Inverse folding.
């Protein structure tokens, strides 16, 4: 395997958690809910996946634990913002602060333990294709799920009745409610889906990206995923493209550090975060386009009248 | 069982006062459950977390030292949040303020003058304000979401601090540790009481809170902040500019976070090092909400959250639980605060499926009100 292939392989690994968390948040936001707690749900997924894998020896149980943990944690957000109509921005922040705290507490005994890496699954035939095969068809389960989710969400949102309902709720919850669509119930499901995806993204971090538990190991990826959704103008395929772009930036930064170009390593480490800001600026400076793309009810509280 | 909300005709003053206290009680109960899950006696754990620090002069001073940055940042954030500008990057502005303020004692360490300290404080405020000017500019002129940009800049600031203390500003006398040289005595904020370490930073915090309380209550600017926050449209009709408000609130909160940063470094740490904050910029968000975005409430909230830091350190020693419990406590507290705030605007009613008829009647009465 050549050096280029090795680099591309690391890009895929770095991009997968971003794509996963962003595609989940995309569905949540399409339903009109702004959950800023992605970072918190992700880190809960990471710690629970690691702990469950250590307890059972199976990283697949770990994946389930990560998904379940992220989803359960998102339910907390759902209860506050949907049932108690608390401020979504503040509640999302609370979710992140709480997630970082609880995960640190749970993971304390596991710091420094070497984990179990999720094994790659070669797809017979396709994985033999030169260059492309090892890159795309000899990956771990979570990578395949991430691609399937992008395709699935795109189909679901734009080709099914339920997807149409979600978009309707996100654009005008008042009208959707008047039409008899269960706004709160649908939003709960969208929040749960976002939580499950963020939890799975966390599981990828502690089972694939670096198979161990490190406190705060999500390192802002949840926030980058939020920026990705804006970058993608709430469209699934663009989430995929953006995720890989960001994955490439964070990996090239690591390789530049290894090469030692005379640039201080801290400047290179800051690069993905600077890139996020730059991309956000580029994508949102056109006020009208942003207005058209953003779900109109995003972040607005909804109390059903009776 | 289902939970239904009914909007109150007007916001309940009773619950506006009570809700932070309900949240505190719920947090303490949840904290007790957490200690019990960790296999500790909840009563004695809660006692050493929340009560013991209050009985000892040394810890009272520690609380004041930790409350100072929380209050300074918190009152700045309250202006932002009241005007609907979601600055969540105070941690970065705190760091940049600390670095900018440290230019004087680190780079010009041979200059000795009574002007050193005032200059440091001014530089600190300018540093914090300039760093907050980035998300402000991006929001006001380029329509960029300030939540994400201000947060991303926290990471950038942390890397910048790491670089500067390991690189250009590393102390020649520091035995290769990543620290700057120790500040000279005239660059250190004086202590204000004979009994302990509390420094002038605490006075800054109280003064800032009172001034901002006065501004919010008695000046047109305060009214402008409230109106623009509640309805941008109404504010425009009144001739207020939401763009100017972005600049005003972000620069003000950035300057206060910067002042907190340089005060912490000058008064408490006495040098720069890779980590200068246990997350004050984020904890101050909780402080702002627990204080109900009211500067005087924020003083009380800042003191309480400082207590969670000191209490966390105490139980770490006495009960050998990790200092992570502090962050769990803080997260839980914000959750309960936000849930209890629902009570201010809504009546909460539990609906049981078996009693539909009664509920329908209730609803009718609600409608007749």
């Amino acid at each position: 395997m050549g050096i280029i292939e090795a680099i591309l392989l690391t890009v895929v690994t770095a991009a997968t958690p971003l794509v996963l968390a962003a595609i989940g948040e995309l569905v949540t936001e399409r339903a009109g809910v702004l959950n800023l707690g992605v970072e918190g749900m992700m880190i809960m997924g990471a710690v629970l996946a690691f702990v469950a894998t250590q307890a059972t020896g199976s990283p697949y149980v770990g994946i389930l634990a990560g998904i379940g943990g992220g989803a359960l944690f998102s339910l907390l957000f759902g209860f506050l913002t949907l049932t108690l109509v608390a401020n979504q921005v503040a509640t999302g922040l609370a979710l992140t602060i709480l997630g970082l705290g609880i995960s640190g507490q749970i993971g304390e005994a596991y710091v420094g333990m070497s984990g179990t890496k999720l094994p790659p699954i070669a797809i017979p035939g396709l994985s033999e294709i030169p260059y492309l095969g090892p890159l795309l068809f000899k990956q771990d389960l979570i990578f395949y799920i991430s691609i399937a989710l992008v395709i699935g969400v795109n189909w679901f949102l734009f080709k099914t009745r339920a997807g149409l309902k979600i978009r309707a709720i996100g654009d005008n919850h008042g009208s959707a409610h008047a039409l008899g669509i269960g706004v709160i119930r649908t939003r709960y499901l969208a929040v749960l889906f976002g939580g499950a995806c963020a939890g799975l993204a966390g599981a990828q971090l502690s089972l694939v990206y670096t198979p161990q538990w490190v406190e705060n190991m999500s390192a802002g990826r949840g926030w980058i995923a939020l920026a990705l959704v804006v970058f993608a103008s709430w469209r699934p395929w663009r989430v995929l493209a953006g995720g890989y772009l960001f994955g490439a930036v964070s990996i090239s930064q690591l390789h530049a550090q290894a090469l030692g170009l005379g640039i201080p390593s801290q400047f290179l480490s800051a690069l993905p975060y600077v890139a996020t800001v730059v991309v956000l600026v580029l994508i949102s400076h056109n006020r009208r386009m942003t207005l058209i793309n953003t779900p109109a009810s995003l972040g607005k509280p909804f109390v059903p009248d009776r | 069982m289902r939970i239904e909300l009914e909007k109150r005709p007007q916001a309940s003053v009773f619950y506006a006062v009570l809700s932070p206290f309900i949240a505190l009680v719920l947090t303490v109960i949840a904290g007790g459950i957490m200690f019990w899950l960790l296999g500790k006696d909840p009563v004695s754990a809660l006692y050493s977390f929340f009560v013991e620090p209050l009985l000892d002069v040394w810890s009272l001073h520690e609380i004041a030292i930790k409350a100072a940055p929380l209050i300074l940042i918190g009152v700045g954030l309250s202006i932002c949040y009241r005007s609907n500008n979601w600055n969540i990057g105070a941690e970065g502005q705190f760091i940049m303020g600390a670095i900018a303020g440290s230019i004087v004692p680190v780079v010009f360490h041979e200059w000795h003058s009574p002007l050193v300290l005032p200059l440091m404080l001014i530089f600190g405020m300018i540093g914090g304000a300039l760093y907050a000017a980035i998300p402000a500019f991006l929001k006001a002129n380029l329509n960029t979401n300030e939540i994400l940009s201000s947060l991303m800049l926290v990471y950038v600031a942390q890397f910048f601090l790491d670089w500067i203390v390991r690189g250009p500003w590393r102390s020649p006398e520091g035995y290769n540790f990543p620290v700057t040289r120790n500040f000279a005595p005239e660059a250190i904020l004086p202590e204000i009481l004979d009994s302990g370490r509390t420094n002038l930073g605490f006075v800054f915090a109280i003064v800032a809170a009172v001034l901002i309380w006065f501004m919010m209550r008695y000046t047109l600017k305060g009214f402008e902040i409230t109106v623009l926050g509640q309805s941008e449209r109404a504010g425009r009709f009144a001739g207020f500019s939401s763009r100017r408000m972005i600049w005003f609130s972000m620069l003000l909160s950035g300057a206060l976070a910067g002042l907190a940063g340089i005060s912490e470094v000058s008064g408490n740490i006495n040098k720069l090092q890779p980590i200068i904050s246990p997350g004050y910029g984020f904890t101050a968000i909780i402080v702002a909400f627990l204080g109900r975005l009211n500067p005087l409430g924020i003083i009380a909230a800042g003191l309480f959250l400082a207590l969670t830091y000191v209490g966390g350190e105490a139980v770490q020693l006495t009960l050998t639980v990790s200092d992570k419990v502090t962050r769990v406590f803080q997260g839980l507290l914000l959750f309960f605060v936000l849930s209890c705030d629902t009570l201010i605007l809504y009546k909460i009613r539990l609906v049981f499926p078996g009693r539909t008829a009664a509920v329908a009647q209730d609803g009718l009465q609600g409608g007749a009100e």
About this structure: Chain A has one domain: 3-293. Chain A touches chain B through 46 residues (CB under 8 Å). Chain A has 14 helices and two strands. The mean pLDDT of chain A is 89.
